[in-house]
Amino acid sequence: MKKHLFPIILLLLGNTISAQQDFFALAGKDSPRIEFNDFRSMNADGTSGESIFGVSSEAKVVSQSRKTAVTEDKTSYNHAQSMTLAALAYDSSGNNLVYMPMFSSNIYVLNQKTKKITLVENIVARVTSCDINSHITRMATGYDGNIYAINNAGTQFIQISKKNNQYVVNDLGIIKDDASNGKNSFTAMETGFGGDMIADADNNFYVFSVSGNVFKISTKELKAKFVGKITGLPDAYSVNGAAVNSKGKVVIASAKGAALYELNLNNLEAKQLPGEQNLHIYDLASKYFANDRISAVNSLANVDIYPTKVDEQTITVNINDKAVKGNIKVNIFDVSGKSVLNTNLSVKDGNLNQQIYLRNLVTGTYVVSITGESGKSLLSKKILITK
């Protein structure tokens, strides 16, 4: 029986889905300038889902360092509802949205459930309001579970990690152009500025500039290599948001009031999604990764496990879906397809939030598979144990 497990996993990873609440958007108002409106979930077809938190919502901001509530100056750029928000990432370790205002070094973490916002005072990023080169405009979650952000000119590549339940910021260095880039420079305003970024399963990053140029970032060499230019977009389309959806495709969005497009990363051909046609989106975020077959598994949007980077010997199974009832089975496989841990959990009223101790599993990559009472697959997700 064991010899059949790995082919079953490979088959599972090859399935595709059309999940609801596929990714998240930092949306703006219908305005010629950058003007934040709300954070919202987005459906797979490009239509808006639930509004999570908006410009008029009551903001309860708590300082991470001071561990107290703070009152922010709403006339400045340094506050949680600044109109110049333009960088967003999804932190799956706590179902949080992490974001930064353009003219500020502040990092904010929005808990989707409680709506509490944590202010991470960031002295690492050197953002100067009058220097457009320094503004953080690209942000994404890496495959290792950490969050990464890059400023316009690539002169700061920062990592936001979590240690002892606290966010820690590190400067990883300067990203330079690959020698082959020629006139398509990552560091030049007309070819490389703005846009957004995504991560792949090898912990590389792809940066999409406003003009539609695509650069692949090697984290080891800190170089940006020009991949090509997106085709299939309207002439005046401004690429401002990018995220990987549950099918493993890249969704791109514009701040200028336009439709969303789905992009094949292999050939950079974009096809318009059938959803809304006049959204103003400054950034996108998701829990999925390019070139990761796990992204395409047949799963439910409200069934998840976290963290994906495990350094404290536990993972949490989170379910918030009334369609899931009774007992579920959690099975963990190693890279050979061998089951190394399995357990049964009980779901009550469609809700579950329970930790699983990993019994000192050795460092490496594993697949966590969750199935319902009927045997239907609810989720299959890759984790990396780093302890």
Automatic annotation (TrEMBL):
Protease in keyword set: no
Name recorded for this polypeptide: Por secretion system C-terminal sorting domain
Record's keyword terms, sorted: Signal
Ranges where the Secretion system C-terminal sorting domain occurs: 306-384
Highest taxon of source: Bacteria
Keyword Transmembrane: no
Cleavable signal peptide: 1-19
Any Pfam family: Por_Secre_tail
